[in-house]
Automatic annotation (TrEMBL):
This is Reverse transcriptase domain-containing protein. CDD domains: RT_nLTR_like. It comes from the Eukaryota. Residues 173-426 form the Reverse transcriptase domain. PANTHER family: REVERSE TRANSCRIPTASE DOMAIN-CONTAINING PROTEIN-RELATED (PTHR31635).
Amino acid sequence: MQSQEHTHDLSYHQAEKEAAMNFNAQEKMYHSFLRQRSKVTWLCKGDENNAYFHAFLKKIRMENIIVTYTNDQGEIIYNFKEVVWHFLVHFQGYMGTSSNPTQNLRSDYMNLGSRLNMEHQLSLIKPFTSKEIKKSFFSIPDSKSHGRDGYGAGFFKTMWPKLGTVFTKVVQKFLLTGSMPREFHATMITIIPKIENTTKAVDFKPIACCSTVYKCISKLLYSRLSQVLLVLINQNQEAFVQGRSIAHNVMILQDLLKNYKRKNISPRCTLNVDISKAYDTVSWKFLEALLNDFKLPTIFFSLIMTCLKATSYSILMNDTVQGSFKGKKGLRQGDPLSPLLFVMIMEYLTRRFLRGANQSKIRDFLWGWNGNRSKLHVASWEKVCLPKAYGGLGFKDGVKWNQAIPAKYIWAISSKRDIFWVKWINNIYLKNKSLLNYELKNDTSWYWKKLCHLRDKFTRGAIEKAGSGGNRFKTSLLFNSCLPQTQLSSANVFGAP
């Protein structure tokens, strides 16, 4: 208002301009603070400083607060110091305890793949330039979490004109001598709930918040190592390998599985391997032997092992740093170098599979040929699929699971779920007709044909509910026929998917 009253007074205009600039700067800083605290999709949910956004912040904060702990005896512990102690014991148990590899590295497995030659070794040990170090620093997003020192990537970028030379010398000193100050390798573990209603430490996933200087060093080693992975890693491994895409494996898998539904094909199976705590339980002794066998230069793999072995952990609980212990095994989730090292470890598993396939040992696990005579089939597939408590091996029956899993899509169509895909199916195929009355045509997609073939099995045991077009169902599992010529009440529950 004063500026409008003094339209010819330049001092008022200048004061108004400075006030606006100061306000915008303060607002930008406040929004940056909120963005770092929220860790949500900022563009979707944080573009307005409204009540919903602050409620979302409060909700996340309440979900991450740890108040109690349930021990193995089922007792609930309320004393926060005891809760912290249990968490420290848990994470130190598998991250701060050394372990020997379950099996020594075997050269006959490693001989089934490539190793680095002299040219690749020289490319790894060539000196890092100041330009590469600066590029590594500036490639770290400002929103990335900082380590225990509290300095994020934004600080280093802002202060680069004044302190860039110092930062560069610190990184170069480590790359030349392998000496890293304790402050740089100190890692803060943020624990993220894996499930709702968490009660134990095992319900949390540890994410490593490394210092920005360490991230820069790790990214430099990552950039060099990624250039030679194409030589070392088998072509069937696509993830985290430069120049490859995991989407290629998805398409190959589709082709491999397309004939599984045919009856007149040779016996075959697909394994889905889920490795528990894969990153956290890696043996450093095994990794060191593996890198050495891959013929990585001694200088280079020594830098990698220094990055791992110098690690010290603290746990962030309720916004407070708790405890400290030395790391003795495992890879840090959040370390740029960890995915590449894990891919190299999985390469050893791939070569073990290749060795077993070459010797035709995998097919003789339960049935097959032994010497000059066939093995006795001591167990049927139905018994193998029984739970372990009932004498089986707990395998999932692939045929029944392949029928059960797509059934949820049929249910979504039948219950008219308000999702785009159901609307698509209704407009393209059903055209407001009942799913029960739909007649399959030849010019439809393969997945729709599969769903239609499963439709009869899905609707067996379901009764049509009047209203809403007659397309919704309710099931009577106990009294309707769910399996051929029987009800669930008299069915073999172990044979059901």
